[in-house]
Design a protein that fits this description.
Rossmann fold, 3 domains, 13 helices, 4-stranded parallel β-sheet, 15 strands, alpha/beta
């Protein structure tokens, strides 16, 4: 697989905006290309700084970092625009350049019993959608793109924290097919009731998500029980503008009303090392990306819950309601 860094778009945008100094954000797997990208920028006479911080999604725009460094522009690679910011930002989505035909052929076995298929893709595969749709239609399948709901870029686009577009078409399909990686397909499986099948473009695998979904649901039920038992609770708020899910102040009042002690903690990024320093806190509720609590369950020695899960533990929502509306 080859990644297209959309060099022409990058150069075009930089010539148009004429910045003197820029900050570049790269996803973790792309940081190895930092020198290559910086050479392109500096070749235009523009000073270039590479952010060493994580950039898991389009929600992680490094506005505070950019202001501290005095740059004119942020160039964010690997994601579509997630939120409007008050800082000049260019998004370079990039493209996966690969031959999908063998993977699509392999998927037909898993899709044998399904006629109508809900389809979603990660942004790097957006350019392949028309060909993929044609392939399945020639095999007698009907592909229905997930709707544009929430902050996704368009029909079919999938991001890690919003699956309303899949729920919108669930009654019309027999299953869901996600083109991308496990991160997106796991999220989809937790959001809908129909089967979810992953076309993993990076490992060239086709896999169903049912077993993983069941395992995660057991982990979430365990975490909810731990919060019910906890006497001291930490509420974590991230300071990134795209990572705000709920009000820490309102949640703190609910926790105290339930007879627990609580504190509000701010972090630029939640990590096990930061968590372990709060020795006396028995459970945490994070109001940042819900995938932190769900995907990183085994990284943490203490339970971390999402806002929705905290409401279940506090008796304001039932487990059945949570499953009905989807954990994400």
């Amino acid at each position: 697989m080859v990644l297209d860094f959309e060099k022409e778009k990058l150069i075009r945008e930089l010539k148009l905006k004429k910045p003197k100094k820029i900050l570049i954000q790269l996803p973790e797997g792309i940081k190895k290309n930092a020198l290559e990208i910086s050479k392109i920028v500096e070749g235009l006479g523009i000073r270039c700084i590479i952010s060493g911080e994580t950039a898991w999604g389009g929600c992680s725009i490094a506005i505070q970092e950019a202001k501290a460094l005095g740059v004119d522009l942020i160039v964010h690679f690997g994601h579509a625009e997630f939120i409007k910011t008050n800082f000049p930002t260019v998004y370079i989505k990039m493209k996966d350049i690969l031959d999908l035909k063998p993977l699509l052929e392999r998927s037909l076995k898993e899709l044998k019993k399904y006629k109508k298929i809900g389809f979603s893709y990660s942004i790097q595969n957006q350019h392949e959608v028309k060909d993929i749709k044609n392939f399945y239609e020639q095999k007698g399948k009907k592909l229905i793109l997930s709707e544009k709901v929430g902050l996704v870029e368009g029909k079919g686009h999938i991001i890690g924290c919003q699956y309303g577009g899949l729920k919108k078409i669930e009654s019309k399909v027999d299953c869901f097919l996600v083109l991308g990686n496990r991160f997106h397909s796991i999220g989809a499986s937790l959001a809908v009731k129909k089967p979810v099948i992953l076309l993993d473009v990076y490992n060239q695998e086709v896999s169903e998500m049912d077993d993983i979904k069941d395992k995660i649901l057991k982990q979430r039920a365990f975490s909810i029980e731990k919060l019910k038992e906890a006497k001291k609770v930490g509420i974590i708020s991230e300071i990134k503008s795209g990572q705000i899910f709920g009000s820490a102040e309102i949640l703190l009042k609910k926790i105290k009303k339930y007879g627990k002690e609580g504190i509000i903690i701010t972090m630029s990024e939640i990590t096990p090392e930061k968590i372990m320093n709060f020795y006396d806190i028995e459970a945490f509720v994070e109001l940042a990306c819900p995938r932190i609590a769900i995907d990183d369950f085994h990284k943490y020695h203490k339970p971390i819950l999402t806002l929705k899960e905290a409401l279940v533990a506090l008796g304001e929502k039932s487990w059945e309601e949570l499953l009905e509306e989807g954990i994400l």
